[in-house]
Amino acid sequence: MQHEIVKDYYGSKLTCSEDLKTSACCDITPPPAHIQTVLKDLHPEVTARYYGCGLVAPEVLENACILDLGCGTGRDVYLLSGLVGAGGHVTGVDMTEEQLAVAQDALDWQMQKFGYAIPNVDFQKGYIENLDDLGLGAGSFDLVISNCVVNLATDKAAVLRGVYDLLKPGGEMFFSDVYADRRISDELRADPVLYGECLSGALYSRDFLALAREAGFSDPRRVSSRPLDISDPAVSEKLGPIRFVSEVWRLVKVDGLELEREDYGQTVVYTGGIVGAEDRVVFDETMVFDRGIETQVDGNTAKILTESRYAPWFEFQQPSGPHRGAFEVDTQAEPQPASTCCG
After folding, report:
1. What is the model's pTM?
2. How many CB atoms within 10 Å of residue 78?
């Protein structure tokens, strides 16, 4: 039933971003300058029907192979197309024909705008719960993104398992979504407006962490978080005391990570130069790397950085030091606001 709710809501009821009833599927935080540059070159009809909730363009994307789950009209696909360059590729998956038609119609216009002789994007119709059915190839993607879509899936565990299988070793799922402070009733999940607005399908935060670890992502990293404002009185009344947040998460496919973050005396230095993060890399809400500054990291973070696409931009020191016990995370670090590509 939820699939039909989503198809109807996003295929027929919503015609532009202004039709949304809550802030769940949008954010007003300006994106970084290099992303704004690409956004200005996107097809206007594609951007007009954008319903994402957070930033899905991490650093180091040149020549990357990327999968966008629930791509809609292709706004993020085309954004990433401009960031990966002619040597990269972006695949968008969605189950709504009306949205895919908009994305496909913009293809030639967008490739010409970017100056690509050969398209570096493609679109497939399918369900993100059944990624195996699409024939994409296990271990074939550097990055999987999703922008406020996993909460709409009927089997979220299947989505995460499918993503894990499709990622290359060292690859990651970098995505934004909506989470609730408690489990939501079946009655609310059956409400088409609440579900379509990315609210009643939201996971309880602790359930999400459990599902991520079961899928193989043993050390989930939250990058940013913001509370949602439910300003529509009718929607707020139905939800009652439930509170929601929009969060960006990083799930990395690296074997051998420990269940807890442990201290081995390791340090890293960000050497700088990553496009869009020339002087600072925000890896998660507690790990921020300033250019040229030696930063102490836990064993998991050192291993992730070493085996990921970030490795060339870091110098690693004391990679196998003695165990020093639990790594004390700086919970007083300045929080990172959730940002997005909403125009």
Report:
1. 0.89
2. 30
